[in-house]
Each structure stands twice: as structure tokens, then as C-alpha cells.
Amino acid sequence: MRNLFLSLSFLLCCTAMSGAHRERVNPAADPPTTRTIHLRVSNVKVARGMIWVGIYEGDHDFMDREKARIIGVNVEAAGDNYLELPDMVVNQEYALAVFHDVDNDGDMNRNWLGLPSEPWAFTGEAKTRLRLPTFSEVKFRVTESLGLTSLSLRMY
Questions:
Q1: What is the pTM of this model?
Q2: Which CATH architecture has domain 34-152?
Q3: pLDDT(53) > 60
Q4: Helices then strands, each counted (H, E), the chain
Q5: Cα(148)–Cα(156) distance, rounded to whole angstroms?
Q6: Which first-to-last residue range defines the signal peptide (predicted)?
Q7: Taking the domains of the chain in order of start, what are their residue ranges?
């Protein structure tokens, strides 16, 4: 009888522990919800070169070409050009930096003052045009309902 009681106790204890263990194991986390953002780049003056978009996720990678996700598209026409920015995580903050590489040399050309000599744009509004904006000045949040986003190129 004692052996039966010990066996039942052991079995109950193992069953309880295995159930508790299963409850503590976290199921695989759901992957984050992503969406494709459609970007309209307007005020393109000449139908040549490339439009480059840098996608930044925070202060740690902002304006760092080596850390950014870069997407480029050939300029087919003056006026509006459209790009797709895939895999943008919903509820995450991003900043976009865009420039029209008119001479297609892969670099943002600058004048003798160090200011861009090719058209450029950022999401949001920088406090001043005399310096690069900060991430917090130009960030935006991706939402489920975010549709077409527009940026207009500027020149100094």
C-alpha cells in the first residue's frame, strides 16, 4: 500500500511539474507586423540619375550610410517619382532621408560651404536648414493605415 501511495504521489508530482513547465515555456513570439510604404518623391526637376532613400530606425543609425537601409530607383521622369519601402514595422519610428543623385555618382554632392548641391528631403521638418536635422526632428511612426507618403525635394 505504501508503494502504491508513493507511486501515485510521484506520478501526481511529475504531472503537476510537467504542466507547470509547459505553462512557463513561452510560445514563439509572433513576428512583427510589417507593411510596404509607398513614397512619392515630388519636385524632381530632371529625368536622369537616381533617387536614393535612407531608412533610419533611431539615433544610433541616423545619417550613417553604413548602417542605413538604402533603397534606390532610376529617375524615369521629371515631376513625381514613386518608390516602395518594404518591410516597415508597424508602430516603429523611422526617419527618411532622400536625395536626387542627378549626376549618378553615388554621392550627395556639396558646394564650397558644405551644403548639398543636389536636391534633398527629409521626413518631418528640421528646426533649421543650417545643420543636419536630428532623428527626433524628422521621425514618423508607421501605422496600419499609413498609405502614400510624400516628400518634396528642395535645394539650398
A1: 0.78
A2: Sandwich (2.60)
A3: yes
A4: 2, 8
A5: 26
A6: 1-22
A7: 34-152
